[in-house]
Design a protein that fits this description.
Order of helices and strands: HHHH
Strand content: under 5%
Radius of gyration: 18 Å
Structural class: mainly alpha
Distance between the termini: 13 Å
Helix content: over 70%
Largest sheet: none
Number of helices: 4
Number of strands: 0
Amino acid sequence: MTGAEVPALLRRLQTLQAERAERYRQLEEGHRAYLSSGPHYDFPRYRQLVHEVTVAFGDISREVLSIAGCLRDRLARPDLAQHLDRLQDREREKLQLTAQLQLARQRAQDHPQDESHQEEVQDLKHKLIKTTEAISEVLQDLKYDSEEVE
């Protein structure tokens, strides 16, 4: 193991996380545009965006898993790899919540008289905030545990 490999992998992880954040921004922006096209929604355009973002998330996830495998198997840092496993779990949860929130927002828009849809939106927003906080916590733990390497 060279002294530079672990920090280089962790810098790559930071880049991947920034790419994820940008994809979430694109997804949110696209969903806002989709909702504004209602009541006759422009679903084909939104479906294409979702497809592109899903492919990008898949690529990012595969690379994060590869980094975790490298940390675990080649660089003898299972402690750091475990953080990446937790990160992937939280990111998967965030993506699921994001999809649920988008569906809930559409239901709330389509049925404004039904308050339960607005309550569902608020509940999902809260869960999404908690999941985002958990992701930040995992990244902080990773940073702390990796500082001895740098």
